[in-house]
Amino acid sequence: MPPKTPPTSSAATRAARDRVVQFSIFLRNKVGAFLDVVRLLQEHQVNVLGTTIEPSADTAIVRVIVSDPDAVEGIFHLHSIPYSTWHLIVVELKEAAHFGEVLTALLAAEVNIYGAYALLTRPNDNAALALHVEDNECAVSVLNGSGFTILSQDDLSR
User: Fold this and answer.
1) Architecture (CATH level 2) of domain 12-86
2) For an engineered disulfide with 93, which of 11, 48, 127, 142 has Cβ 3.0 to 4.6 Å away?
3) pLDDT of residue 17
4) What single string gives the DSSP state of each residue in 103-140?
5) Bridge partners of 21?
6) Model pTM?
7) Burial (0-12, 13-18, 19+ Cβ within 10 Å), 142
8) For residue 19, which phi and psi values (nearest 5 degrees)?
9) 113 — phi, psi (to 5°)?
10) What is residue 130's predicted lDDT score, i.e. its pLDDT?
11) CA 119 – CA 131 distance, rounded (Å)
12) What are the boundaries of each domain within the chain?
């Protein structure tokens, strides 16, 4: 078997653009904290495309997918908003019944799901499910092989 060659810079750039970035924002658990962040993003023409919130007594972890991840990193740095990032996969669901098929395919491949949430937008007029999984490459391969479409950041940001 010939050795694998590293991706070209254009292939590497495309792969980076394809990745969907989730921001985990660390906020004080107070009324309006998340709204303040959303308004800040809107002031910079950035939309929240998906979200989930994990509250606790004093803090909340707000996870978001946004229309312009590069801009958000700069905004968060400028405003000292603590965050981390993680790459997710986003699978298109043409029908609600396909949700079980996604889970079945991932189970068959023994891919652990750490988190999931629906997006607020409907790319291609279909539902979309964001998945934080143990192994993105394996999950993408399994879901593509099962006939599902994996959406890129570019697909979501249109």
Assistant:
1) 2-Layer Sandwich (3.30)
2) 127
3) 55
4) HHHHHHTT--EEEEEEBSS-GGGSEEEEEEES-HHHHH
5) 87
6) 0.84
7) buried
8) -65, 135
9) -105, 120
10) 97
11) 10
12) 12-86, 88-157
